[in-house]
Specification:
By secondary structure, the protein is α/β, with parallel strands linked by helices. About 35% of the residues lie in helices and about 25% in strands. One of its GO terms (biological process) is response to antibiotic.
Length: about 300
Amino acid sequence: MPRPDSPDDPVVDVRGLRMAYGTNEVLTGVDLTVSAGEVVCLLGPNGAGKTTTIEILEGFRAPSAGTVRVLGKDPMRAGDAWRARVGVVLQSWRDHARWTPRRLLTQLGDYYAPYSTPERPRPYEVGWLLDTVGLTEHADRKIVGLSGGQRRRLDVAVGIIGRPELLFLDEPTAGFDPQARRDFHDLVHRLSDLEGTTILLTTHDLAEAEKLADRILILAGGRIVADGSADELGRQVAGRSEVRWACGAERFVHPTDDVVAFVRRLFEQHGGELTDLEVRRASLEDTYLAMVQRFESGARTRPVLEEVVR
């Protein structure tokens, strides 16, 4: 029997999503689509509705209104076969403190084995996964004795043991040291590029979002106020690029909308005297702050968003 979702269907398709807690309306009409293999990052200030949105997509919370389809199903009505296709990395894993990582992953992996397919064998081999997340040396230690960073690596392993088609990552590198963070970034790229895993993550680390995400969504006031790649948002939302250069002992800075034309003119005017040329585009942090401030000040962001999407 064919699957209910075809390869061309979006992995996540949300229309008119609303969520209210009593009289407090957290989500006021969220529309979003995530395609297969994309890495999408959801950014937003505290209280914007990021966690609520993710919990609805995971099937842990029922929305007040709207249509939600994840892997072709309504998450609130989906069964075990659907859940086997979804991985979740929570902010912490506190169960089974006296188990070892190897035992825990082996036990969890057994739940996914009945849902293995020729195209996507499940689960991952435990030894490979322990090595991938950097826990081989600690595989047979009790979880209660692991450091915070090691427990966070285990959180990641727990989330991907079933070789998910869609992976939710909630602040995945919180507590990671720089090397662990770099290793995790490599893992995300591997899952996306080699496994075709679709990834939806939240983070407060804007540099991490810029490094990992194909597309960035900014959520503010219960709705998405920006949608595009970091480069698109930086060029079209946050403002002009900045060109820095030196001629002899003098240094200059100039903002411009057309970097290529401006730099060409610099070379025509100064030739070999031109040194220390640097082009600085608006960073994701610039973009994020500009978008959130624009929304909070009551300015209209939707026309800018439509320019980026088009």
